[in-house]
């Protein structure tokens, strides 16, 4: 780890080398480092042997609610540390070394401009023991900030932590490039297999999810200095079931326990600072985020490029967490977004076809530049997921229930009202019973593209609360209602050009699938090592498709219509969306 990235543990010898980590401010500001303090043998504790340590496993989560799963993951993260390891290190030796400080439940390694270990101890004592043993490097011209972070560096000063060529088994934190993905998909034998393969290649791994919760918990250590009882929660694609390796980290600073809103019966006591007068809730959110943003910039190891975007509709602090490589957006007072993440998570678990189709549509949109990591007039992944959900609600029989149906199944404990919006929905998945629908994913994908090729976007709004389209209440080119805030259009940013590109690409992709795109070309499978011909969904991810269909004014390739339906689709390529 570079000195920029955070606190440091120095391992000066195998017997006594962990030191208390402290932040340092170097000359111009936030360069963070540590000094060193040698541990005496009596300060050490012997924990689990390295051999007993298991890699992260899939946690048994069947039947657990979204909130329970989040709380369990956060609790594990609070017992974990992030350690930058020297290169050419032996996994076994590192674990043996660390297990002297406490029983290790889980551990994995990854690479992000250097090797890191995520180490989950059986209890927080392991962290105290590490902190008690860690030292700070004695560097001139640096002033230290007394903050014990759980981001540490292990240095092999005079210690042999290497084990010849058998170094660390690194867990991938990024996914394949589109070209590699196309090659992999081309080798599958059916479109349904391709969709499964795409999902399992791109989805977040257990390790990546654990790292996301750990970063969340590291940030809470800083925010907790200002608001001791706060929590930082994850929302968005990190937890909604549709996260792809490399997606951003959406964080929500939850001050509800601090604000006292959860206290139902007044006791006669009032806390003075809670009643300090400010213009509005928004002003409070802005000042809380401003303070926490400042804290992250000044004191949080590894947080760089902190920007306070406080005048946005939803004020946020944006920054990079260098050691994990995550781009983070921290918001406060954003409970409705937590609820929409829970809704998507719930829907993603009802039928495996949901995740496969959402992953495909998100990946397809990215491959053709319909989505972007830069804010602008592009459609967002959240809006695309909503389009898939809506389409699946309209199947016969429906593959997904409407939000109103989920509300009807809710128990009294599920009741939830946020800022006047009824966000109640069932949390027990076993209560949701739908009529069987056995449509293959190939059919669903093709019909998804056809559905949105001809959808009357100019007049109609998409409403997943009712599973029905409705007349648009405003003139935005694309109108997708926020499931919990009926008056809010989640795709307000999308302009006419981007909507036209989306529709043109849907038409082209529907045509490709109908025109033999679903048929595997002879000789594609079985030629080990040979470059497979992109077919099926692999062909839909090819850039040439976008050029042929999406860009206005370009010469279209001449094609032979295979059926009346395809001929109509081809003709519709040059027509505006249905009125
Ligand atoms: N959200 C919302 N309204 C919007 C945009 C976002 O309610 N107009 C909420 C959704 O709950 C969404 C979350 O904020 O899941 C995070 O937004 P974003 O990061 O844009 O979407 P993700 O679903 O996280 O997808 P991505 O993988 O692109 O980050
Ligand atoms: Mg996100």
UniProtKB/TrEMBL annotation:
Q: Where is the composition biased (Polar residues)?
A: 569-579
Organism name: Clupea harengus (Atlantic herring)
Which portions of the sequence form the region Disordered?
549-579
Residue ranges occupied by any RL domain in the UniProt entry? 65-134
> Pfam families, from UniProt?
MTPAP-like_central (PF22600), RL (PF17797)
Entry-linked Gene3D superfamilies: 1.10.1410.10, Beta Polymerase, domain 2 (3.30.460.10)
Q: What is this protein called?
A: Poly(A) RNA polymerase, mitochondrial
Enumerate the Gene Ontology biological process terms: RNA 3'-end processing
Molecular function in Gene Ontology: poly(A) RNA polymerase activity
Gene (UniProt)? LOC105897218
Q: Which residues form the signal peptide?
A: none
- Name all Poly(A) RNA polymerase mitochondrial-like central palm domain ranges: 191-345
Q: Might you report a single GO cellular component term? A: mitochondrion
């Amino acid at each position: 780890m570079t000195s920029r990235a955070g606190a440091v543990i120095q391992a000066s010898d195998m017997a006594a080398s962990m030191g208390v980590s402290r932040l340092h401010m170097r000359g111009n500001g936030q360069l963070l480092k540590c000094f060193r303090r040698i541990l005496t043998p009596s300060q050490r504790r012997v924990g689990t042997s390295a051999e007993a340590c298991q890699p992260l496993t899939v946690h048994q989560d069947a039947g657990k609610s979204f909130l329970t799963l989040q709380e369990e993951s956060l609790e594990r993260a609070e017992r974990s540390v992030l350690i930058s390891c020297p290169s050419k290190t032996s996994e076994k030796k590192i674990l043996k070394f660390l297990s002297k400080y406490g029983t290790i439940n889980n551990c994995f390694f990854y690479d992000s401009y250097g090797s890191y270990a995520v180490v989950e101890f059986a209890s927080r004592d392991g962290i105290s023991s590490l902190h008690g043993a860690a030292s700070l490097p004695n560097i001139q011209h640096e002033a230290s900030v007394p903050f014990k972070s759980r981001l540490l560096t292990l240095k092999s000063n005079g210690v042999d932590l290497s084990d010849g060529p058998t170094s660390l088994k690194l867990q991938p934190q990024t996914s394949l490039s589109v070209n590699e993905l196309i090659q992999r998909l081309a080798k599958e034998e059916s479109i349904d297999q391709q969709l499964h393969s795409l999902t399992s290649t791109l989805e977040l791994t257990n390790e990546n999810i654990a790292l996301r919760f750990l970063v969340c918990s590291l940030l809470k250590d800083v925010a907790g200095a200002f608001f001791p009882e706060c929590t930082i929660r994850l929302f968005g694609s990190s937890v909604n079931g549709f996260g792809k390796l490399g997606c951003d980290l959406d964080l929500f600073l939850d001050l509800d326990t601090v604000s006292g809103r959860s206290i139902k019966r007044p006791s006669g006591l009032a806390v003075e600072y809670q009643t300090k007068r400010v213009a509005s809730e928004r002003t409070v959110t802005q000042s809380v985020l401003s303070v926490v943003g400042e804290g992250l910039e000044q004191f949080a190891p590894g947080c760089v490029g902190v920007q306070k975007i406080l005048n946005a509709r939803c004020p946020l602090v944006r920054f990079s967490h260098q050691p994990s490589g995550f781009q983070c957006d921290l918001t406060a007072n954003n409970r409705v977004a937590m609820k929409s993440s829970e809704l998507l998570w719930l829907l993603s678990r009802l039928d495996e076809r949901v995740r496969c189709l959402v992953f495909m549509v998100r990946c397809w949109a990215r491959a053709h530049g319909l989505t972007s990591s830069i804010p602008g007039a592009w459609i967002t992944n959240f809006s695309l997921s909503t389009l898939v959900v809506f389409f699946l609600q309209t199947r016969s029989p429906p593959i997904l229930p409407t939000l109103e149906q989920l509300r009807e199944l809710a128990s009294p404990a599920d009741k939830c009202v946020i800022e006047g919006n009824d966000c109640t929905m069932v949390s027990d998945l076993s209560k949701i019973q739908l009529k069987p629908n056995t449509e293959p994913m190939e059919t669903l994908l093709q019909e998804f593209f056809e559905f949105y090729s001809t959808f009357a976007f100019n007049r109609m709004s998409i409403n997943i609360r009712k599973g029905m389209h409705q007349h648009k209440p405003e003139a935005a080119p694309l109108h997708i209602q926020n499931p919990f805030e009926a008056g809010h259009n989640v795709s307000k940013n999308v302009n006419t050009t981007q909507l036209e590109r989306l529709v043109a690409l849907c038409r082209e992709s529907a045509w490709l699938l109908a025109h033999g795109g679903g048929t595997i070309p002879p000789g594609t499978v079985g030629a080990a090592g040979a470059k497979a011909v992109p077919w099926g969904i692999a062909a839909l991810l090819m850039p040439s498709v976008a050029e042929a269909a999406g860009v206005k004014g370009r010469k279209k390739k001449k094609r032979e219509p295979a059926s009346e339906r395809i001929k109509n689709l081809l003709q519709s390529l040059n027509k505006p969306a249905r009125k």
